[in-house]
Amino acid sequence: MNDILKQIKTGEVSGMQFKERILDKYDIACELVAFSNSHGGKLVVGIKDKTGETNALSYSEVQETTNLLSDIASENVVPSILIKIDTVEVEDGNLVVATVKEGLNKPYHDNKGIVWVKNGADKRKVFDNAELAEMMTDCGSFAPDEAGVRDATVNDLDATTIKQFLGNRFERVLEKKGLTGDAFNEASLDMICSAIAKGHDCEKILRNLRFIRPDGTLTVAAMLLFGKYTQRWMPMMTAKCICFAGNSIGSKVFRDKVNDADMEGNLLHQYDTIMDFFTRNLHNVQIGDEFNSMGKLEIPYTSLVEFTVNSLVHRSLNMKAPVRIFIFDNRVEIHSPGALPNGLTIDDIKAGTSMPRNTFLFNNAIYLLPYTGVGSGITRALDEDINVTFMNNDKAQEFVITVWRGESNQVEGKSNQVEEKSNQLGNQVEQKSNQVEGKSNQVQDSDTKKVSLSNKQRDIVNFCSVPRTTAEIMERLGLSNQTKNRERYITSLVTAGYLQMTNPDNPTASNQKYKKVNKR
Question: I need a surface site. Which of 45, 115, 134, 269 has the fewest CB within 10 A?
């Protein structure tokens, strides 16, 4: 009895008096619908909701209530559900307890067509199509990553990214055909497809891999992984990155912000743009007491990789909201649309439990993005000994990862001690420090973290996460293929060390491409 009182307060149990039950069969149906669409629960007849005051039922009332509940579950809940009915003896009579499991055929609705879900101890109506789709996704009756993208064609996909995907997925097959290294780079996409399956072109390969639906439309997964300009078709499948001055999201002052145009692209481009945002806004701290010791990002790079990939791949595709990444003075926040799916808890993901929301996308993104796909990403990130908190917000329908930057203050304090020690050593150490600083400035000139890049130049560096031709780069910029444009957006980036040629021995080769120089 005490357990029931506790569950009434938390909303896991709803109470109802006998006379109220007789008067309002419809309200009972709504309650059963809400439990089925949420995580299940119990309806107790013979007890007041919220207060827990009992109004025990007689034997005849128990029989009547049992029959009524069974009829309502089969006739007034659509689709019908099965409920388990028990009786509990109390002073002066009995209570009837109807146990409702979370439904397998969401969304359920009442006989008026209204969908209900639990809202704490109460219930609420659902009118949002995205929330309805999320229910269907959660129970496996709808796969948003396999849905079609209206009016999109294969021409809207990026051939270079498809080629890289196929090269990674069919690496052993292509190796047997001798298509590795330079041979692979020089081969056309159709040649790669034909080597994988004789007589197949790109479209046929994508059909066989289920990126193109039987009706000929591209899937959402195809557009997310290979789209040239993904956001033109799915505007909210993007990320917003802002570095604030201070610790409040209400601050009107920010130090850095990624423009929407720079984020436009598929998941690989979004990933590289986000990681570039992190590396140019988070501090590099000195490791050890030596002046020439290697610097390290204040939040381990590997942890940021895992958190970023998870936010892109496991986000809800039904929610019309972007991934949001905020850097504050004391923390980093990564907001991923959609609460944890399939009944997962925070403890589950910390333990490495993997239950992907977007199964098809998840199983294919592994060939483009840096993750293993076995559920070990979060545990690897936690192994870095960082101060991180997770919040699963069912009400706001988002999952938030917060990484606290307090650890960097301790490292900074340690570096200050080293600085004081260096001051005591005199001019000789100061001269050595200046030499090292000069070297670090030279390195910074060729480091992709250099903040002096224009937005367009930074976008091109991230765009070249897969090798790009001059024509592709100019198309991305919307510029003509003229010498001055090539010098500003290609040659200068190669000279500075941001980009490298795929064929450096022959700079004027017709098949020359440019690839981002990956540095951490």
Answer: 115
